[in-house]
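In this section we walk through a basic example: taking a raw amino acid sequence and producing a predicted 3D structure, encoded as discrete structure tokens. The instruction is simple. Fold the sequence below.
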Amino acid sequence: MKLSIYEALWAEPDAGLGLADKREFRRATKSILKGVALIQRAFENNPVLRQMAEERRLGFIVSSSVGEIEITRDFLKDFAVNQTARPFLFQLSSHNSTAGFLTQYFGLKGATLTLSNSYQGTEAAIESATLLLSSKACDAVMLFCVEQSIEEWVDLEMYKKHPQLKASSGANLLIVGQEDLLEGLSAKATLSELNYNEPSDGEALADTFYDSNVGEKIARLIDEKKSGQHFVLRPDSTLTSFVLDV
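The resulting token sequence is shown next.
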């Protein structure tokens, strides 16, 4: 399924947002601040989004690398010991608390999902967005993805071989739909052929792999107006390829 991309943004690194020295900030707080900055920019660039949000025509997906693991553990432990299910625990998880705050702050009334899929958070969000769109649950979907840092690449052989690999800023925002033109929104690019492959050997790696973050790379490629097939290699050695028409 081809997706039209109406907006593509990425966050500045933590230092740029004044968060680097805020060690007392929990992960969700930093995610919320990045989300506010990105969604505010998207709304300013596309005023029709506020109306779509009010009319429940704008879906929202928050995807984090790690969001619910500790909460899930506590939920299962409590259920095993006390035979009591406490689903309210999940509102405390990183991605759920982030989604809850952002939906209230911006008045997002459409379908909302939270996902956690390690290094493939953006891919999971894109696949979920296609389900929301094909089921007519909304006309467009806003994807806010908080990605894993690339710091652990430093100790990997792949990073040593390819020093051009860049660190992810940590968050990106895409607004996608199925139509090139949608009531005040025009497509900046078309995304298709999202595939998962094993990395191959050879010189091609040095020319094609430079980022760990699919969403951020898509946003940067649109900004640079680079069409074609692109690849993203991550620290767990998984590989995503996609075709972008800008």
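Looking at the output, two observations stand out. The chain has a mean pLDDT of 78. The helical segments are 27-45, 48-54, 69-82, 94-106, 121-134, 157-161, 204-208, 214-224. In the next section we compare this with other chains.
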